[in-house]
Amino acid sequence: MIRTGKPPIETPKPKRQTTRHFRALSSALAAILAGCLYGGTLLVSFPKAAGAQDLQKPAVNIDEDVTAFAFAPDGRVVYSVRRMYRNKKYDMQRDDIYLRDTGGRTKRIFQGEKFTVMKPVAPQESDSSDEEVDEKGKKRKKSREEKDRPTTPPFTYLVEGFSFSPNGKLVLVQLLTSTMLDESSHAQDERMTLVLDDSGREIKLSGDNAVIHNSHDALWLTDGATMVYFTEAVQPNLLYSFKFANVKSGPAGPAFEGRTFIAAVKVPHSNSAIAIERDRNMSGPPRLQRLELLAQDDKELATLDGYETGLSVSPSGKHVAYFIDKEVLEVRDLENPGRLARVRIGLGAVEWSADEQHLLIKRSPDRKSGDLVWIALPALAGVKGMSSDLIPVIQPDPVPILHGLTFRDFAISPDGRTLGVIPPGKRNLLLFSLPPPGAG
Q1: If pLDDT is split at 50, 70 and 90, which confidence band does 54 have?
Q2: Which of the four, 79, 242, 302, 415, has the lowest number of CB atoms within 10 Å?
Q3: pLDDT of 333 over the 90 cut
Q4: pTM score of the predicted model
Q5: Measured in whole angstroms, how far is the alpha carbon of residue 369 from the centre of its chain?
């Protein structure tokens, strides 16, 4: 993430194809242009599949290089924008953070250029000159205050995600950071969690630090002040342990001590989570667990045939979905875990419709671009005592949306009425009014 001497690598823009090249396909091109010209940005598409759901022009086009976004419980949108800065030796990325309210007003609440994490360290002798070079390349003398001011190591980060507290007053910012500790060392990478209020004020959890080191995928408890987060237990990013933290008292020790997990998601409006547990030596099968985070109690729901990715809990907390391999999605009843269904759809990320009758799936590996399709929630059936090989795998009829275009990230608002997507390339944020699945 820190690069020496060279400017940041930009994604080349696709070249326009000539009118002559499309002459034979002019009628098809006209249909594509009508559906894909969003806010002046041409998005290349494919012919619409039968039964595809048409969405209107986006209600909002945030024309920035957006790295991550999330919806607040009340429908506000927080998003981060890629910013690059240059000092004498390094190109550094420090994303800014913006909040868009429900009235359409947008405000930058956090400026990455001014953000520091590590405690100041004394400047190195090579940097102790009375002169420095300004942004235009001209030398100037340092003031007494600048010469006496301690410096921090070059520090860069990008925002990977956000999580609002239940009341929407606080937001956790997932950072992937990289720090150059000295002239000869490699960059030290670390995931950490930044805690802000919704005005962008840093919440100091311990001393002068507003971050939780070695942490990610934090889950809020219902009090809006306590959280449980993952910390790496088996490297590299194979298994994780839980720890507690509180916005008033800071980090507060381990949760479910001695146990290791692959993934966990919160059950809405509760202090419970659904987690995938594995033994530290990776010898046993993955186990589906219901965890009571505050009481630190647990209940094993099922032993799984496998786990790949995509753990997701429905808005009511009655169902869970996850991929058991790179092709098969399993949906299970959390109130009666012996009832399940399997669907062959292809690996991806999962969101639920508001009525929980459909799943919206981005068909691609994590952090890769893929198309978005609706599938109907399959009928669940009891499989107790049935061999895994005999459980039927349904072949669904996926319904594409947004003209079959690919997107790097997506999310549905808590009320199910808005879909946010980030296309690859420039990565502006598009917000669509989302009709119920099946609506034309």
Answers
A1: low
A2: 415
A3: yes
A4: 0.80
A5: 13
